[in-house]
């Protein structure tokens, strides 16, 4: 009887050890809580759009969903393991909506996070020469201001539009006053732009952004406008005659 009792106890210990060993070697899968993703449109061309995702740690990648209506049905169009994704075969005159979510692979399982906010991909608008020149002039102006340790000016599409109106007016009256006799900055009131202080530089005959900025910086009055601490925003207008023989520029500043 004693031998039988000892054997049963020994077997019981073996059984417990075997169970512990099995538990130690069995893989455990955990569901990782993924946060909400973020996405923005970094570039739009006629048929493509480039997306940039907010970088998230601990994820495998991002799934991309597209719709032609903000509250419509979204279909997955792809996935990326990086923070960028390029969409193709878009129609330039069509509006799209996109959202993304992060995902993580765990063995044969895929764990997904929350959808990002819906982002609109607008119609393609061709970049004009005036748009390109506005960005280049702003860059050159801010380089000049940086040499004097002044804060950089910010771009303003509203001021760009107003300055383009002024640049075209310079063809008929190349002066600080407009063809109707009002001051050049009255264009801001016409365009319903609110401001406390404003100024304008004009020029003609300069073919490139570099040429016009150099011309303005060489004149004390124009330079003072560019280097003024009264302004925070800059807009630029550019206009050339049909044959491209003459070039007109308007640079408008506001606080």
Structural notes for this entry:
The protein is of the alpha+beta class. The protein has two domains: 38-121, Sandwich (Immunoglobulin-like), CATH 2.60.40.10; 129-254, Pathogenesis-related Protein p14a. The protein contains six helices and twelve strands. It has helices at 2-25, 129-147, 157-169, 186-190, 209-217, 220-227; strands at residues 39-44, 49-53, 61-67, 75-80, 84-87, 96-106, 109-112, 119-121, 154-155, 198-204, 233-240, 247-254. Strands 3, 4, 6, 7 and 8 form a five-stranded antiparallel β-sheet that branches. Strands 9-11-12-10 form a four-stranded mixed β-sheet. The chain has a three-stranded antiparallel β-sheet with strand order 1-2-5, with no helix packed on it. A hairpin with a 7-residue loop joins strand 3 and strand 4 (75-80). Helix 2 (129-147) runs parallel beside helix 5. It is elongated, with a radius of gyration of 32 Å. Mean pLDDT is 87; it is low at 1-32.
């Amino acid at each position: 009887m004693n031998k039988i009792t000892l054997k049963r106890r020994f077997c019981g210990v073996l059984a417990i050890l075997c169970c512990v060993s099995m538990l130690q070697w069995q893989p455990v899968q955990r569901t990782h809580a993924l946060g909400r993703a973020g996405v923005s449109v970094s570039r739009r061309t006629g048929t493509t759009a480039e997306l940039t995702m907010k970088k998230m740690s601990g994820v495998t990648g991002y799934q991309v969903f597209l719709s032609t209506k903000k509250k419509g049905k979204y279909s997955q169009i792809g996935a990326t393991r990086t923070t960028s994704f390029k969409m193709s075969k878009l129609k330039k005159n069509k509006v799209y909506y996109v959202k993304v979510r992060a995902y993580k692979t765990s063995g044969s399982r895929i764990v997904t996070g929350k959808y990002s906010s819906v982002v609109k991909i607008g119609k393609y608008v061709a970049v004009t020469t005036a748009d390109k020149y506005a960005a280049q002039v702003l860059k050159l102006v801010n380089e000049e201001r940086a040499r004097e340790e002044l804060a950089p000016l910010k771009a303003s599409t509203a001021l760009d539009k107003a300055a383009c109106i002024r640049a075209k007016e310079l063809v008929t009256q190349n002066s600080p006053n407009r063809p109707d006799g009002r001051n050049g900055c009255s264009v801001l009131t016409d365009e319903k732009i609110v401001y406390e202080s404003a100024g304008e530089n004009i020029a003609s005959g300069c073919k490139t952004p570099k040429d016009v900025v150099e011309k303005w910086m060489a004149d004390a009055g124009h330079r003072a406008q560019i280097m003024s601490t009264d302004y925070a925003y800059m807009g630029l207008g550019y206009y050339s005659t049909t044959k491209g023989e003459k070039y007109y520029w308007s640079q408008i500043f506001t606080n």
